[in-house]
Amino acid sequence: MSHSNNPPIPRYLGNWCLGRILGSGYSGSIFEAQHVHTGQVVALKVQHVDHECLTNRYERYLYPLLQGGLGMPTLWASGVQGVWDYLAIDLLGASLDNLYRQLGGPAVPLDLGSVCCIAMQVIARLECMHARGVLHRDIQLGNTVVGRDSYSRTLYMIDFGFSKRYIDPRTRRHIPDSKEKRDFIGNYWFSSVNVHCRGKVPSRRDDLEAAALMFIHLLTPRGLSWTRNGVPKTDAAHRVLKNQKRKARPEDLCRGLPAEFEEFLRYCRSLSFAEQPDYARWIEEFRELKVEEGYGDSDEFIWPPPNPQKRPEATPRRTRTPGVVAPDAMESILNGLTNLDLDRTGVRQVLGDRKNVEEAVRQARANLKDDSTATREVIEISSDSEGCSVDVVLVPKAKRLAKLTARASDATNNAALSSLVREFLEVMKCNSSRALTKDGFAFLDALYKQLEDPSVFVAPMRTSRPRSDIQKAEVKDPSYVKLGAVARLKREVGTARSNKEMAAMVAEFGKVTNNSTGRTITKDGFAFFEGLADRLMALQ
Ligand SMILES: Nc1ncnc2c1ncn2[C@@H]1O[C@H](COP(=O)(O)OP(=O)(O)OP(=O)(O)O)[C@@H](O)[C@H]1O
What we know:
This protein is α+β, with helices and mostly antiparallel strands and about 550 residues long. It contains 18 helices and twelve strands. The strands form four sheets. Strands 1-2-3-4-6-5 form a six-stranded antiparallel β-sheet, covered by helices on one side. The chain has a two-stranded antiparallel ribbon with strand order 7-10. The protein has a two-stranded antiparallel sheet with strand order 8-9. Strand 3 and strand 4 (about 40-50) form a beta hairpin. The radius of gyration is 27 Å and the shape is elongated. Bound molecules: adenosine-5'-triphosphate. Adenosine-5'-triphosphate (ATP) binds near residues 27, 43 and 73. This is Protein kinase domain-containing protein. Keywords: ATP-binding, Nucleotide-binding.
């Protein structure tokens, strides 16, 4: 319906006296308003009842599902008066869109510290919404706003006009997927490729992918490439935009950004339709990135952005430049393959006592046996420098770690252990996830055992309990516990005087990593293992 003939919005709606306009969207306007009796100040979302997209009608049913969650606005009242439908919700502050533009965006990107805070908070908001069975489906800068007063460092999600329950309240089941192409719901800039370009049914993964694109947009000078020509005005222009979005590879979108952003985007795209995302892991990843870059570990969104507390260390950050396999990375992949020597029956045992080979090693060997029947994983790696593509056989991370674990139990001296530690580092670095999986812990167990006393049985540092059990049973340490301990280990490993001392360090590393939410190896963690490999050579 056309709005030009709408009657003017009255000064009073229900018990609310309308004040200044806060913003307007496609379906209506938002006003600051005050309760005539209590004086309470709210944001009043006003829409014409005949509007073709009367989102208030949906929102009033969704708000109650979200009440009480951090960063979820409260719905105080709602009603219809004459032709006006209104919702009275918490009055909040500026949107990220406003703040970003104030600072010069998109010409000027946002600082990494702020984007990490945004990432931690937005992922947590999505976790909260999803836990209550609701998808947002319209994640964008204009729908992410800061709170007021004591909540001015908290981000809120607003605009649930496109939101939907993805858990059927009757059956308690996830909504079904569909092969049929559906009309697009969301926004041009950040809606996921599956939803926007392929017409798929939105699910939790798509909220997260939209968030990932939003983070990348904020960090990219001039923003995501498909946003640069403005909102498409014709169907043809919209088709061009969708094409551009569909073709943009994560490695191109994230060139020059810290690896976490590309990894997060890839992770979102790897989720299956009904899969539950690992929110905690990614909140922890962005927290660690923030700490590593000198911005501290808080997720509070401080505006204007403060300067980093310390400059980033000289070691270059791990940015990803996939698409091009660097010659040394390719060499390490191929070396890794040729080093996978399974026939070690004649190796003399010096450090280890074969009778006491621990559970982790037995497990690793069992995994190796299973591998003989496993299919090879072929991954295509294209090179944009040459405009060609090469096929490379990559051994999956788990398999390579299992082989390293088995070899660790057979190591005959410190030099052999040192080279195994270096191979372990290679595996962890060339993989898109730096999370220490149970295979990684098994390697640490084997290494610890060799360093400490191979004749004593050592309880594994991490068991392979199902993740749900682990989450129930464990109270995670705050990230600074792990970060502080690993930084100390990195400093101290260079002066370790014996294998026993190094064993204790490996054990401590395993313990703090197992107790942290993300179980990722940080930059300091990598430096610790590098130091350990050096020290093992020095103490031969
Ligand atoms: N609770 C609030 N407190 C303060 N400002 C708000 C609040 N809700 C919305 N706004 C402002 O109004 C703008 C539009 O709000 P909202 O997105 O909810 O409306 P909409 O009509 O659904 O918009 P669109 O059609 O663009 O999706 C927001 O970007 C924000 O700047």
